[in-house]
Amino acid sequence: PANGSGARAGRVDPYGFERPEDFDYASYEAFFSRYLVVLTRRAIKWSKLLKGHNGIQKSLKDMNRTFPDNVKFRKTADPCLQHTLYNVLVAYGHHNKAVGYCQGMNFIAGYLILITKNEEESFWLLDALLGRILPDYYSPAMTGLKTDQEVLGELVKMKVPAVAELLERHGVMWTLVVSRWFICLFIDILPVETVLRIWDCLFYEGSKILFRVALTLIKQHQAFILEATNFPDICDKFKEITKGTFVTECHTFMQKIFTEPGSLSMATISRLRESCGERLLAQG
Amino acid sequence: MAKQYDVLFRLLLLGDSGVGKTCLLCRFTDNEFHPAHISTIGVDFKMKTIEVDGIKVRIQIWDTAGQERYQTITKQYYRRAQGIFLVYDISSERSYQHVMKWASDVDEYAPDGVQKILIGNKADEEHKRQVAKEQGLQLAREYGMDFYETSACSNLNIKESFTRLTELVLQAHRKELAGLRAAAAPADLARLDEDELPPAGAEEAPKACWC
């Protein structure tokens, strides 16, 4: 809502609603002049971030490897979203120097761009996800990611013990089967609509939702996974369970994730994150 | 039922992001080449059975994300490998320089007898070449490794390099593998810390465990 900046508020607001007769223009303008400062600060920040140059660009080899099967990301597309993606990622690298660029962020920023169709909005949403909603999945040590993979392992032990036992028996590390689930927030794992429904919950409820999705996939397909008799089989099963009508029917899938895994309190997640984090730290 | 393979082991693809590790693998296992494919996140693997010197070898080839920070995840797999491809891109001097870093990480995390070969990929991109073939040869000599310039795009030296590394691993485990052709059940060199059950068709458990 950047229009109306500076000028006196009109009879019709930016959304098309006529203002009532008794509209309090004075307090609205007082509010808007304060809000304008925020909008301006963001716009300035954004344009500065776009201009900056440092080493981030060097590691950005993923532009043509982001969504090669998406026509809007092809070099021949007009406009070509590879440029938009590049801007968002370079800007984020400047903004959050401790994280910089991590492979996987390209997919997330790519989805945000496809949905918002807006570079600056994509940037701020990426910042909300990486800076506030998710633990530090993408920082150089990837501690948050490694921790959450272990947390999922613990949750599976509690809720689907036979599967946990199977993986343990065959030496399948959780990171092998689920790292992409966490890093890409289910992009390229589940169907687009399902991913977007999950993201709605992710923005609203936080990172706990990722465990709900993972546990639902595993619990729902428990019998199928348990058919596996060796290491490669298990890995194949984990790829198979992310396909088919169960995940395509995004509406029922979303209902399932709140029932299938049973209760999952934030206190449990926090406790497990703490203990798994300590364990990883001890392992070095 | 005839056994499906005589021996199973693991190879690992290492090298900078974008040097073509996934493309090498797809060309070798599926004879496919996709110039634009999605970047590898974490670790993945593909399997293929080849016959070397009359021995049916089932190889599990591990593909890794090249970005440095992913090593925190991928290094866990080094110790499970019997052979390692160190890959650079002939059109990227930087990726060639980094081979030394990859090699020293292998020394640190991989098992002692691990076999290594050096790969200069994208040999079809002659017009963009930044690393002379001689530089590749020299680096390989320094490390006592075999060297191939490959192209997943034009299918140059793909089968040759995978077969060569397989031979090297077989030679390194010659003693353990003696009498293999007479054995009824497959040997599992990859059997390091997980218990892998024999595949369907090999009803008996391996007669010995070579690890």
* Tally of strands of chain A: 0
Report the uncertain regions of chain B: 192-211
Largest sheet of chain A: none
Gap between N and C termini of chain B: 26 Å
Family (chain B): Belongs to the small GTPase superfamily. Rab family.
GO molecular function (chain B): G protein activity; GTP binding; metal ion binding
Catalytic activity (chain B): GTP + H2O = GDP + phosphate + H(+)
Subunit structure (chain B): The GTP bound form of RAB15 interacts with REP15. Interacts (GTP-bound form) with MICAL1, MICAL3, MICALCL, EHBP1 and EHBP1L1.
Write up this protein.
The complex is a heterodimer of chains A (284) and B (211). Chain A is mostly helical. Chain A is built from 14 helices and no strands. The N terminus of chain A is likely disordered. Chain B is of the alpha/beta class and 211 residues long. Helix content of chain B is 30%, strand content 23%. Chain B contains seven helices and seven strands. In chain B, helix 5 links the parallel strand 5 and strand 6. The chains are: A mainly alpha (284), B alpha/beta (211). The interface between A and B is medium-sized, with 35 and 29 residues.
